Amino acid sequence: MQVRDYVARRLMILPLLIVGTSIIVFALSRVGGSPIAIYLSHEMTADEVAEIEERYGVNEPLPVQYLAWAAGALRGDLGWSGVSSAPVRQIFPKKLAASAELAVAAGLVAVALGISLGTFAGARRDRWPDHFARIFSISGASMPVFWFGILLLILFWVILGIAPIGRSDPGVFARIAHPTGVYTIDAILAGDAGALWDAIWHLILPAITLGYGTTAIITRMMRSSLVEELGEDYVDAARAKGLPERIVLRRHARRNALIPTVTVVGLSFGFLLQGTVVVEIIFRYPGLGRWLADAVLRGDRATIMAYVLFTSVLFLLINLIVDVLYAYLDRRVVLGE
Amino acid sequence: MSATDPTSPASMHSGTGPALAERVPLVSVEGLRVHFTSKRGVVHAVDGVTLDIGDGETVALVGETGSGKSVTAKSLLRLIPRPPGVIAGGKALFRSKMPCPGCRGAGCVDCGQTGRVGEPCTACAGAGCGVCGQSGRSTVDLLTIPEDELRDIRGNRIAMIFQDPGKALNPALTIRAQIAEVFAEHRSDELVSEAGLDDESGRLLRRAVRNRGRFFERRLGSLPPLRSQRRRVDAVLDGRIVEALADTRIPNPVKIMRSYPHELSGGMKQRVMIAQALACDPDLLIADEPTTALDVTIQARILDLIGELQARRGTSVLYISHDLSLVRGIADRAAVMYAGMLAEVGPAEQIFADPLHPYTRGLLAAIPTPGMGRGRLAAIEGTVPELIDPPPACRFHTRCPHAATACARTDPPLAIRQPPDHRAACLLYDDAAEVGERPEDMPDRSAAS
Questions:
Q1: CATH architecture of A97-329
Q2: CA-CA distance, B403 to A37, in Å (whole number)?
Q3: Residue B309 covered by a domain
Q4: B22/B153 same-domain check
């Protein structure tokens, strides 16, 4: 099957999957306690409670409630965010822009560093670069994010005092407009080099903290699959053709070693978004993760549901991208079988 | 090369050079030793192999699994993994050939219709000197030349085909891309001039053709002036690839070219491997069990194909096999290897008609023949000895029916037993005094014949 047909078919199935997901998300939100609890207080009378229940349709049968919520979600109305005292629709893009900026920064660094370090180590198996990469990646995979983040924070913020926390310097924030909410892009649009530097400077520590674990996993995966590929006959055959080692490594071994790595990379982008919860709290970074944490602590269902729905859809899309990329790299994969 | 006048073939035939050159082998392996380090000690995988391969000759290297035959072949191209492998000693002298100056590769009397003649030594112009070991031909030691010089030889002067074509082709690249690499690596100048781009081509295009372009160069290469030039080179390249594939009598080469390896059958893949190996008209083809992974019917066709292409181009073939009966029909000379050493070397016919080494005899006795009665096949008792720090002894003495005391402490020399060049390493044919043993410890000659 052609890649294009396959993507089209998967995209047609996608809405069904999203509907299914939304039903699960909605059902989960109704499992623990009343959804309107956040609006209630001890001083309210039973009549007042009944009035609120009436207003939010909690008395209706669940399917009706679901349809009302789903219709709202389709219109872009995801409810009122209690923690932000504003409609979810208004807050969500800003938080998403912040988290996406962080996750993409961390992800790009992790992919670039992980693949190159893994290749470097795998091509020098059991020599010192390999040992160094092993130590680096085992530390990364085994150190909890909150611990590593706090260590960095103590060193660079508390002791050295060179790294900032938060997302932006208030003065810089006020200086430029923020049409996209992604501060690096906003700074570039404004043509303000100082603001760009400020945005990057604020990103570095959280991105390192968030990306370290992913870098470690990608490094290990890349290293071991490269070692495996380098033992294959086609690598010897490529050398027997007289190709220089650089090309043998890049065009032959690495390309095949990337196949299993791609799956890991795809899935780890999803995990990066999850990881933002801890990292954003540590670095006081105002993104989706911290918003979600606040919402959970305060029982703000509208916010939680928006977050969960978004994450599920994101995973569906990532899986699609990974499958297509997989077929591109490994020609033996027959799509749609 | 520039020392000789290309217009007069006679200049090649002056002095003592040519007379010597006729007998000079293409490859002389001398005392090759390859070791592998392991936790338990040093494995002597190849322990003193001496072997010549003549021009246009097919030499079969026969032995069981683990005898070191593949390692011997791979070390000619320095393809053994290092570490753990180490080339511990010996030489592998290679005397490459060049297009015959008389007929410019078309084939004439001077070059025996092969279109290729030995390249004269650059130091003595063919007279014979210390550099070329009195051979008069340009000689390099494959085991010691720098890596980049070796790369010029790999795939160009010496090519290799592998046991399992399914594994020796890269699954992620098209057949075209894989064969193109050989031409791009060794024939890039020819491609550029055939595309008529000699005058206008710049360094960038040449680098692009050789696949040397860095990322930004590749982006640059997709812009108009370079793009059209590249397309012209690609068209020439396509022609070459189709030609190489068609030579292996593969059906529909244009379609094959665009396929991925997994879309082809085993026999087709091996044909692709052969096309790729013979793309640059190598002087030597190393065939490492090229038919082991194929069906019996395909085996015969692949062997025929190799034989046919070899005859047409005058290529020498080093044929690695564990199958003596297969070798019988195709080899000019055979070398029997056992536990890292040569047991017997000689003309193939003689080895099959009159094997000297007890191991060769055992192997030949184990080949079932049609019309043989039912019952057990003959087998050689015992197993191959461990090759970790082996003692000086005949490696076969633990399994040999003729073994005597001397066999366990003296390493028999690979001496000529039947003139002119049938050699065997066995004390059965040695004089006690010559190997420094007492006559009563020597194996019993009367029982052997």
A1: Orthogonal Bundle (1.10)
A2: 95
A3: yes
A4: yes
Domain that holds residue B136: 9-157+282-335
Residue B49 is assigned to a structural domain of this protein: yes
User: B181 at the A interface (CB within 8 A)?
Assistant: yes
Please give the pLDDT value at position A134.
Answer: 92
CATH, residue B102:
3.40.50.300
- Each residue's pLDDT tens digit, B300-339: 888 888 888 888 888 889 999 888 888 888 888 999 998 8
Are B182 and B255 within one domain? yes
Which tops the pLDDT comparison, B376 or B57?
B57
Q: Does A305 touch chain B (CB under 8 A)?
A: no
pLDDT average, residue stretch B351-376: 80
Q: How close B157 comes to chain A (CA, Å)? A: 10
Q: What is the domain count for chain B? A: 2
Please tell me which residue of chain A has the smallest CA distance to B213. Answer: A247
HEC per residue, chain A? CCHHHHHHHHHHHHHHHHHHHHHHHHHHHCCCCCCCHHHCCCCCCHHHHHHHHHHHCCCCCHHHHHHHHHHHHHHCCCCEECCCCEEHHHHHHHHHHHHHHHHHHHHHHHHHHHHHHHHHHHHCCCCHHHHHHHHHHHHHHHCCHHHHHHHHHHHHHHHCCCCCCCCCCHHHHHHCCCCCCCHHHHHHHHCCHHHHHHHHHHHHHHHHHHHHHHHHHHHHHHHHHHHHHHCCHHHHHHHHCCCCHHHHHHHHHHHHHHHHHHHHHHHHHHHHHHHHHHHHHHCCCCCHHHHHHHHHHHCCHHHHHHHHHHHHHHHHHHHHHHHHHHHHHCCCCCCCC
Clarify whether residues B16 and B121 are in a common domain.
Answer: yes
pLDDT, tens digit, 9 for 90 and up, residues B188-240:
877 877 777 766 666 677 777 776 666 666 666 667 777 777 788 888 888 88
Whether B262 and chain A come into contact, CB under 8 Å, resolves to: yes
Residue spans per domain, chain A:
97-329
Asked if residue B195 lies in contact with residue B323, where contact means CB atoms within 8 angstroms, the answer is: no
Selected for mutation to probe chain A from B148, B152, B170 (highest A CB count within 10 Å) is B170
- Residue A277 tokens read as 């919860």
Beta bridge partner(s), residue B53: B27
Contact B93, B141 (CB under 8 A): yes
**Nearest beta carbon to residue B152 from set A233, A234, A242:** A242
- Residues 30-49 of chain B whose Cβ lies under 8 A from any Cβ of chain A: none
Question: Chain A residue closest to B178 (CA)?
Answer: A238
Asked if B241 and B294 sit in the same domain, the reply is no
What is the model's pTM? 0.77
Same domain, B203 and B315: no
Q: What is the ipTM of this complex?
A: 0.82
